[in-house]
Structure prediction request, 376 residues.
Amino acid sequence: MNEVKQMLAELEAVCADPKKQLSDALTQGKKCIGVLPYFCPEELAYAAGMQPFGLWGAEMQVNDSKRYYPAFICSLLHTVLEMGLKGMLNDLSGIMVPICCDSLKGFGANWQYGVGTVPVIDVAWAQNRRLDAGTEFTRAQFRKVLGQLEEIAGHSISDADITAAISVYNKNRAALRDFSAAAARHPEAVSPSARCAAIKAGYFMDRAKHTEALQTLTTKLNALPEASWDGLRVVTTGILADSPALLQILEDNHIAIADDQIAQESVFFRVDTPVTDDPVLGMAKRFETIEGCSVLFDPGKQRGNELVELAKAAHADGILWVMTKFCDPEEYDYVPVKRKIDAAGIPLLTVEVDQQMVNYEQARSAVEAFAEMLRA
Ligand code: SF4
Prediction:
């Protein structure tokens, strides 16, 4: 158990100081590419020998970004822009910006005007992702991104390099899935905060090294004796569920995470990239199979069906929707997805979060009341 704690602490340390990971990569002579959510082809940067560096916002107060975005834009984008404006991301050689929600559509222009020094790589992918034309569009866009990355890297990137990078990412996704399953079996050893950190660390580390760390950790978790758990188990859904305060509230209420449908977590690793002769086509085809994210075109809201299935498979006591404040796609999804959860008779709690929040007492009261209701 001590070894498990030690390994989890190391991954928590990575998340506590991503800047150190960035400096280490730069010291090794690597160029680093910032990657905003969602579904950017970061494998292409990896294939070029560069280090993708996840930009999922930060717990901080913002000032300068308010000159570019109104207050009612999500804190994820406000805080990434704030870091850029403060020069905290000047060591990046570029940032990938997808164009998949209204707020992200303006991000590249704000960044270019306000930060300027770090070039923007626009990433478009087709919303009609199950049509051949949609897949072809995404493939062509990813090839365009590849060209920009080649310019930044200063050398060409071969299909063999891309295939190798896809393999690294697929192995990482498999390791993440195994870890998530082991963590669900051992809530006594993996707290909600530790689970989150082990997953999130991959956005700042070399993916191959992250895979090695997770595989060792999972082996040690699987070797632990079967645990009895008298707490509650929930499935989380949303964009982000990495707020230290909220995760601590779950821990305080003896609530474990049985599985998730969080964009930063399982949505990233639930499906692999298929192996195809043209590796970029495989990356585009991966879109056809991704489910459970509000930024994806999802007729009939399969997200709700998947969530219900996840909760049933995990024998969860309920679902926790971690609602990112001012996120339009999440708010649009809420009503149709909630209807499906209600129809399945699964208890749901929704807690609104914001990376600039300092007072979590309202969230604490809601979680406590939810836990009491589930235990009754
Ligand atoms: S999807 Fe939501 S959280 Fe993500 S960038 Fe857009 S508004 Fe922000």
